[in-house]
User: Which sequence fits this backbone?
């Protein structure tokens, strides 16, 4: 019988298949190896980048430490600049007692003769806040000023607790002892005090009657100081006589850049008799500023710390050594805040005062 065997054709067809499989396996292995190499390279690159970032961070930290050390050394070796403190508020002593008064106070003529409506009281309350915030204390009024005393009393009562104690000044402005006593009692009640700091005889009206009463009230502790006032040059002689004969504590008079008549005799007499001086109408009731509005502020204003004509005019008045306190009247918060700036500047000497007068064209 014939032997049955494998056909040579079958063996030859299987060999190519095996070769293909082998080649595929080889390619797969190669691809896997390539992928592994790529991953390894990527990891190496990531590690290199991480190392670079770490090195950069270390360098930054080193630079920061170096800068900190340099700053510390500079702070230790270089002395700090001097502190620029706000100039202190100018004060003047009351000659008879030495009590210090802020050199700028508040006048109330016309400005505080108002109703109790919020639209009128709000700006006046702001004026009082400016006064106390700037270190001021003096508030001057009079029965002649209409509702001024009542307005002051009402607004002071509305101020918060802790507000500095004001230095209250008003006047007696009537004839006769009984009428004077009644008026003064009413003024104390309206202004909300049991002891008036300063009671003045307004415009010397019936002064020979009122002055003994003021002395009695001073001894009784109803008032702390007494004084006299007048606005007219024609009464300067009478004021000067009273300074020399009656030993009053205060005199109130007009004095400003355009009205310097008090320099001749009254201010020297006040200095000679140890009388404190309140200055009324320091801006001539606004007329002085209206006159100066078109004039440029002189260069010396900056040297004195003045930023406006109002401040320069007030500084000029305060340059006189006999002046104790200037009392501009204002119901405008912005204007009054500007006025108060004169209490922190440098006072002009005699040459600077002459230069101010020349710059004002007076």
Assistant:
């Amino acid at each position: 019988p014939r032997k049955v065997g494998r056909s040579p054709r079958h063996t030859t067809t299987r060999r190519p298949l095996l070769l293909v499989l082998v080649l595929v396996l080889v390619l797969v292995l190669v691809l896997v190896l390539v992928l592994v190499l790529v991953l390894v390279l990527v990891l190496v690159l990531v590690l290199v980048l991480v190392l670079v970032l770490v090195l950069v961070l270390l360098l930054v930290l080193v630079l920061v430490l170096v800068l900190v050390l340099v700053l510390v050394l500079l702070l230790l070796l270089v002395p700090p600049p001097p502190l620029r403190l706000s100039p202190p508020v100018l004060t003047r002593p009351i000659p008879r007692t030495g009590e210090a008064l802020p050199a700028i106070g508040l006048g109330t003529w016309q400005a505080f003769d108002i109703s109790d409506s919020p639209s009128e009281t709000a700006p006046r309350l702001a004026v009082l806040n400016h006064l106390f915030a700037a270190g001021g204390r003096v508030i001057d009024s009079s029965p002649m000023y209409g509702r001024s005393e009542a307005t002051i009393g009402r607004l002071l009562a509305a101020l918060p607790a802790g507000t500095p104690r004001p230095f209250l000044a008003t006047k007696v402005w009537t004839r006769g002892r009984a009428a004077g006593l009644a008026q003064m009692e009413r003024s104390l009640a309206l202004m909300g005090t049991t002891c008036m700091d300063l009671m003045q005889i307004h415009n010397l009206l019936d002064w020979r009657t009122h002055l003994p009463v003021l002395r009695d009230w001073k001894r009784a502790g109803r008032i702390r100081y007494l004084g006299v006032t007048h606005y007219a040059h024609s009464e300067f002689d009478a004021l000067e006589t009273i300074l020399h004969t009656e030993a009053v504590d205060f005199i109130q008079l007009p004095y400003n850049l355009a009205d310097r008549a008090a320099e001749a005799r009254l201010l020297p007499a006040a200095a000679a008799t140890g009388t404190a001086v309140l200055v009324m109408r320091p801006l001539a009731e606004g007329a002085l500023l209206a006159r100066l509005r078109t004039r440029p502020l002189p260069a010396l204003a900056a040297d004195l710390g003045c930023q406006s004509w109002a401040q320069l005019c007030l500084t000029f008045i305060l340059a006189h050594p006999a002046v104790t306190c200037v009392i501009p009247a204002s119901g405008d918060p912005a204007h009054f805040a500007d006025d108060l700036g004169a209490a922190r500047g440098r006072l002009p000497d005699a040459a600077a005062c002459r230069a101010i007068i020349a710059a004002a064209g007076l």
Notes: The first helix runs from residue 8 to 77.
